[in-house]
Structure formats: C-alpha cells, structure tokens
Amino acid sequence: MARVAGVELPNHKRLQVALTYIYGIGRSRALEICDICELDPLARVGELTDEDLNRVREVIDRDYRVEGDLRREVQANIRRLIEIGSYRGRRHRMGLPVRGQRTKTNARTRKGRAKTVGRRKKK
Questions:
Q1: 2-64 is classed CATH 1.10.8.50
Q2: Phi, psi for residue 36 in degrees, rounded to 5
Q3: pTM for the whole structure
Q4: Could you read off the pLDDT of 12-53 as tens digits, one per residue?
C-alpha cells in the first residue's frame, strides 16, 4: 500500500478514487493532482512507480492543506464562531443543524436519538 499524506492508499483502486481517501481531496482535486503530476487518473495505485508516488506526495505537500492541518483549521473556525456568539456558533454549541435545515422533523443526525416525552393521565 502506498502512503501519501499519512494515509494508506489501497493498491487495487484507481488513482483518482484512491486520492479521495485523503481528507480534503475530492474527485475534482484528485483529477487536478493527476494532471499536475502528468499521471493517468485511471491507473491503479499498485501500478505506479515510487517516482510517481513521490511526485504526488510533493504536489499535495506543496499545494494543498490536507488531513491534520485542515481538520485543525476547520475546528478553529467552529471554535471562533462559538466564541463570538454568532448564530452559527450557537447552533454548533446546541448540536443542531447549522445550515438552515428544518428541525421539527428529521435532523436526527445532529440531534441524536429521539427522546420520547410522556403524558400524564387525566383524573
């Protein structure tokens, strides 16, 4: 397995798909990296030479913020929103959807399991 940016890339996957295993690299950025390195995006990772992998590593290290650095930056941005008390920061703090989704129904991913509220019997 090839190791790029601290992530093991699976040998049997195409380069374009394997690069998306790295946090911060999606399909379009993976194609961009393949173009810069002059590699075939349809080539399997296992077929690449060490020289090819070194070129990919260099481009990613030089031009892109990925993995740990990017995760830290995202967390710092969220922390900043919470500290300044913005609407988005309050939504983050309360564990509710941040981008305007409805919460009367759905939103279970952010809110967690439904807490059933009981009723009292009438006398």
A1: yes
A2: -60, -40
A3: 0.78
A4: 999 999 999 999 999 999 999 999 999 999 999 888 889 999
